[in-house]
Design a protein that fits this description.
alpha+beta, binds molybdenum atom, 5-stranded mixed sheet, 24 strands, binds ligand MTE, Sulfite Oxidase, Chain A, domain 2, Immunoglobulin-like, single chain
Length: about 425
């Protein structure tokens, strides 16, 4: 089964038959392609198509001076985040990255997901301070300049909300609405270890309590091991200063740990010997298990993958289609992504696009020839620890249905005979 479809893919690529005649016949090019003569006279409305010289070649283009800060093409205006406001908690809001429209592994800053518990504060960096105190020999108040004087590092990591997606009430139509509370970018900042060592941690130091300078004063306890492993005090994303929504001017980044612990607008690190048991780590972000006990301090985001193209709201043509998507794991690197194009009966190994980085989005691709029959497509990631992404049924067997967080199930997309792709797992 597996080797046969490989052979087919190779054959069609040597014959250059990726695009069937049917899929060329779209929009203004329809009559043109169908005529069989590429240079034949064209119908009205196609003056800008070959062999004509398009209008925009006949005059100079816009000068550079129109916008000091660049914007995407006006033809790409539909590629935006989905905004949501919590109707019960007035200050709570979130926006979803349109994962179906992202190429590669880097999410541009204007499309990075957002999750705020008390809105986005407007912080003047000149008036922002980071206080480190508690179990340290040298309690210190840092300015932003003080922080930036330490040796910095740039690293690519994903960030993901623990409620991505929820367990129930999943109405999402697109990949972004479903699991777009996750993004990946290049972060620049100072290793937290460097700063903690500079204030001389006391041997009893076991936890670091991080507090944000927003209206929510979001507070989380971070184990000292993570602080000394790969945690960062971040001031930049994708080469420019953090966006206000991402914690400007300073946030803590805990690669692989649940989004909520990556405290934005970071103003205080209180070094202690026990956790603070804040709202966010007791009543929230815990998982109520079937036996009535709550799992807490789970920290790590488990492996997840999603097919982003084709995905919900897309329409495909029979013949060649590249299946592509994203996979990631809090536990390290993605080792393998399997893709099924027959509803989970058989699986094929997808190609992983380089670079495959630790705790970062990894892009996968699989060539697929769709026979035009209704089917279901699914991806499933295995990470370098050997952990395999569960199906929703497998997850529910272990966790029950009381939880709200840490749903890392595989996600099927249904392909109808018409080529329309929809969420195969919409729940009430
Ligand atoms: N101070 C503060 N930090 C915060 C939050 C917040 O509301 N306030 N939201 C948390 C949650 S729930 C998530 S998922 C991530 C979201 O980060 P982002 O908005 O940069 O994507 O930030 C976390 N850090
Ligand atoms: Mo979150």
């Amino acid at each position: 089964m597996k080797s046969k479809s490989r052979v087919e893919a190779t054959k069609s690529s040597t014959r250059r038959q990726f695009l069937a005649a049917g899929s060329l016949a779209v929009g203004g090019a329809a009559a043109f392609a169908a005529s069989g003569d590429a240079l034949a006279a064209q119908p009205a409305g196609s003056e800008n198509l070959p062999p004509n010289v398009p209008e925009w070649m006949k005059q100079p283009g816009a000068d550079t001076g129109t916008e000091p800060y660049g914007q995407p093409s006006k033809f790409e205006k539909s590629i935006v985040r989905t905004l949501k406001k919590d109707t019960q908690q007035q200050t709570s809001s979130q926006s979803y990255t349109p994962l179906q429209d992202i190429d590669g592994i880097i999410v541009p800053n204007g499309l990075f997901y957002e999750r705020h518990h008390g809105g986005v504060p407007e912080i003047d960096p000149a008036q922002h301070r980071l206080m480190i105190h508690g179990l340290v020999e040298r309690p210190t108040v840092f300015t932003m300049e003080d922080i930036k004087r330490y040796p910095s590092e740039s690293r690519i990591h994903f960030l993901e909300c623990a409620g991505n997606p929820p367990y129930t009430k999943i109405y999402a139509k697109t990949a972004g609405e479903l699991v777009g509370l996750a993004s990946c970018c290049e972060w620049t900042g100072v290793p937290l270890k460097t700063v903690l060592e500079d204030v001389w941690l006391k041997p009893e130091a076991k936890w670091v309590i991080a507090e944000g300078a927003d209206g929510a004063a979001l507070t989380r306890s971070i184990p000292i091991e993570k602080c000394l492993e790969d945690a960062m005090l971040v001031y930049s994303q994708n080469g420019e200063r953090l966006r206000p929504a991402q914690g400007y001017p300073l946030r803590v980044l805990l690669p692989g740990f649940e989004g909520n612990m990556n405290v934005k607008w970071l103003r205080r690190l209180h070094v202690t010997n026990e956790p603070i048991y804040s709202r966010e780590e007791t009543s929230r972000y815990t998982d109520l298990m079937p036996d009535g006990k709550a799992r807490k301090f789970t920290f790590m985001m488990e492996a997840k993958s999603i097919i982003t193209r084709p995905s919900g709201t897309h329409t495909i043509q029979p013949g060649f289609n590249e299946i592509t998507g994203l996979a990631w794991t809090g536990r390290g690197k993605v080792a393998k992504v399997d893709v099924s194009t027959d509803g989970g009966k058989t699986w094929q190994v997808a190609k992983l696009q380089e670079p495959v980085l630790t705790r970062a989005f990894t892009r996968f691709r699989l060539p697929w020839t769709w026979d035009g029959k209704p089917t279901t497509i699914i991806s499933r990631v295995t990470d370098e620890t050997g952990y395999v992404q569960p199906s929703f049924e497998q997850l529910k067997d272990v966790r029950g249905v009381n939880g709200q967080y840490h749903n890392n199930a595989t996600w099927p997309w249904k392909v109808a005979e018409t080529g329309e792709v929809t969420n195969a797992h919409v729940q009430a």
